[in-house]
Amino acid sequence: MTVPFLDPGAAYAELRDDIDAAVHRVLTSGRYLLGPEIEAFEAEYAAYCGTRHCVAVGSGCDALELALRALDIGPGHEVIVPAHTFIATWLAVSATGAVPVAVEPDERTYNLDPARLTEAITPRTRAIIPVHLYGQPADLDAVQAVARRHGLAVVEDAAQAHGARYRGARIGTRTTATAFSFYPGKNLGALGDGGAVITDDEAVARRLRLLRNYGSTVKYRHEIKGTNSRLDEIQAAVLRVKLPLLDEWNARRAAVARRYLTECAGLPGVTMPYVAPWADPVWHLFVIRSARRDRLARRLAARGVGTLVHYPTPPHLSPAYAGSHPGEGSCPRAERISDEVLSLPMGPHLSEGHVDAVVAALHAAVREQADDPSDRRSAPTDGDPPDARAPASA
């Protein structure tokens, strides 16, 4: 059986009639921007998350940038970001004119390590962005404790954590602002780009609405220097169809994760995901680690199982930040993790047969690696970092 890493059309297939009707409703309405679908979705998503306000914007990256700008963060400031994350977290900071400052991840959760925050703070630091990576909540209490001591804002990057809970509460209810992405592959995905910021702060919400629409809420009256970042009515209508299914789809993801965790536990050379006791993840990704990651991925591909690497290059080693940040060796933990992580197929539309195939393929691939003399630690080969160390146990 062939198991694709992701089937983006499966959600549409499940909801075809409802999505078609929603799109038709928008097309015949003649309202395509900042209309009733946006207003309804913002109210529904705010209610789902448990916050007073939701401001829908053009993308998840825009959501982060505008959240920072709504807090008056810009040139001359620094914002602490995880060293292990998708580069959009860093780019959003850079777009404001501020400087992203990397902090190493926790070895078990891969999220920002709160114990390393204080050493990264300078007089220019204005905010911390914890990322709920792979759908696993970051340790917000620990992050906020540091932020309060130093008078810093906390802006959550929840692009992969729609519906996740931290200590029983939905992500987004504990901090000033939380940014989401509705990229098609997300747990709650549109049919194109989209994003939103949720907040309980009335002033922040008002400023976000200005920023997303040229600095204006009244036509041709521009109060501040804004931009154009508006979720369109079609995407909002599609998200309204999917939102009532989000918890069910997250539960399906959790069922897949439980099978992986149970049936693949103890495989030699493979580290399974760790879930903190205070976290209720939504399993946007199921990420394992192997010191022979690239060979393991090839062996899984040979058995019909698609995998991806999230993310092969830490942002500080990307050409985009060459010369402006310390280079190789400056974040050794993030660099090692990026050499070892591998994402298995995960989603609410994986069948039992798909999961059976992934589990069987992983077992077979690990056995094959154990029997292959060229895979021994003493003989690193192509695709394997010569200085890679054994992954931390979970």
TrEMBL record:
Matches recorded under InterPro entries: DegT/StrS_aminotransferase, PyrdxlP-dep_Trfase, PyrdxlP-dep_Trfase_major, PyrdxlP-dep_Trfase_small
Residue spans of biased composition, Basic and acidic residues class: 365-379
Claim: Cell cycle is one of the keywords in the record: no
Source organism of this protein record: Actinoalloteichus hoggarensis
Domain of life: Bacteria
PANTHER family the record matches: 3-OXO-GLUCOSE-6-PHOSPHATE:GLUTAMATE AMINOTRANSFERASE, TRANSAMINASE
Entry's Gene Ontology BP terms: polysaccharide biosynthetic process
Enzyme Commission no: 2.6.1.90
Keywords: Aminotransferase, Pyridoxal phosphate, Transferase
An example Gene Ontology molecular-function term: pyridoxal phosphate binding
Protein family: Belongs to the DegT/DnrJ/EryC1 family.
Record protein name field: dTDP-3-amino-3,6-dideoxy-alpha-D-galactopyranose transaminase
Pfam families: DegT_DnrJ_EryC1
Region of interest: Disordered: 365-394
SUPFAM superfamilies the UniProt entry points to: PLP-dependent transferases (SSF53383)
